[in-house]
Amino acid sequence: MNMLSFEHKKAIFRSFKQLQEKPISNNRVNYVYPESLQRGKILARELSPSGNGYVNGKYIDT
């Protein structure tokens, strides 16, 4: 089973022009959907080079 690298994961999120990349501590990044009409504008949280992170689309309204 092949895993995506940190750079590949970031490239996938960057391909969505609606998302904004927000660097946070310890070389981690969040991806924010500022146009969301609901609360919870962070789509991907704490994406890190170790491969960990969270993706949440519960409140994302299109």
Describe, in plain words, how this protein is organized in 3D.
With 62 residues, the chain is α+β, with helices and mostly antiparallel strands. It is built from 1 helix and 4 strands, in the order H-E-E-E-E. Strands 1-2-3-4 form a 4-stranded antiparallel sheet, covered by helices on one side. The longest helix has 9 residues. The chain is globular and about 35 Å long. The mean pLDDT is 88.
Number of strands: 4
Strand line-up across the major sheet: 1-2-3-4
Helix content: 10-25%
Structural class, from helix and strand content? alpha+beta
Compressed to H and E, one letter per element, the order equals HEEEE
Quote the average pLDDT. Answer: 88
State the helix count.
1
Strand residue percentage: 25-35%
Which stretches are poorly predicted, pLDDT < 50 over at least 5 residues?
none
Terminal residue distance: 33 Å
Q: In angstroms, what is the radius of gyration?
A: 12 Å
How would you sum up the major sheet? 4 strands, antiparallel
Described by the principal axes of the CA atoms, the overall outline is globular
